[in-house]
Write a structure and sequence with these properties.
seven-stranded parallel beta sheet; Rossmann fold; 10 helices; Epimerase_deHydtase; 17% strand; UDP-galactose 4-epimerase, domain 1; three-stranded mixed beta sheet
Length: 328
Amino acid sequence: MRYLVTGGAGFVGSHVVLALLDAGHEVAVLDDLSTGHRAAVPPDVPFFLVDLASQEATAGVMAQGPWDGVLHFAALSRVGDSVRRPLHYLRRNYLTTLNLIEACVAHGVKKFVFSSTAALFGGTERTGLISEAASVDPGSPYGESKFMIERVLHWADRIYGMRSACLRYFNAAGADPAGRAGEDHRPETHLIPLTIEAALGMRPTLKLFGLDYPTMDGSCIRDYVHVADIAEAHLRALEQMEQGSICYNIGTGCGYSNLEVIASVERVSGRSVPWEPAPRREGDPVRLVADPARLHADTGWTPRFAGLDMIVETALRWRQAHPQGYAD
């Protein structure tokens, strides 16, 4: 099959590109490189330097089809930043994706895989596992923008017959087990790479946002899922879409607190992590842990990297091999 991956120079997108290539598919990448890295895209993969805000440029790429499907990762994705700049996030994420969906409909694309988020569930405190039947209550403009797009895809299927897969990942982490790709945000905001960099002495004391949550150790709890397992879920979703549009929560069903992440990094690296408490960040819920039962039942997907130490080990190995990230 021939697939277009938008945001394919970013963290999750670049790992999905590798999974598609490993499965024998033909892949092209569209990215504006505002947060992604050209070096994250294999040199033999066609690359379009395009801003999806441009309808003309977006349509120009779609005209170079036919495309058997589009996998869409390009988005602004920092929760705290979206609280500070809500209208910017809502406008940017929604309108750029609307441009892409319109171009897909116009050029007869039949499959659209959407990188959605667990932030759809961040506005309500939840104690158990979160299934696809859970009420949607975004706790941030970022999460709201993703839900708006899910609704557009619902109507694109109902009226134009373009099938979609809305994949709501929880906390993507880790790195390609073969060392071909890793996590390199500028600035970095994700806990595992921040903790690893603190352990390696690459940044000053780690700030832990919030130790007053109603959890066992006072820090908030997240479901960390390996980025290679997320990529595998995309391959399973493309197959499942033969039956119609789908929506899945992608996680492991196990939650780890922020302090447990620090302990894991110390265990795997053999180094201590300097850290200090800081006030809570706006938009951060207490607990987000997925119920992956539907994805497993429908596709047979099961995470290969099910333990936190396994996830941390691949992330640590990649960072040690690439101290400057993709700048190396």
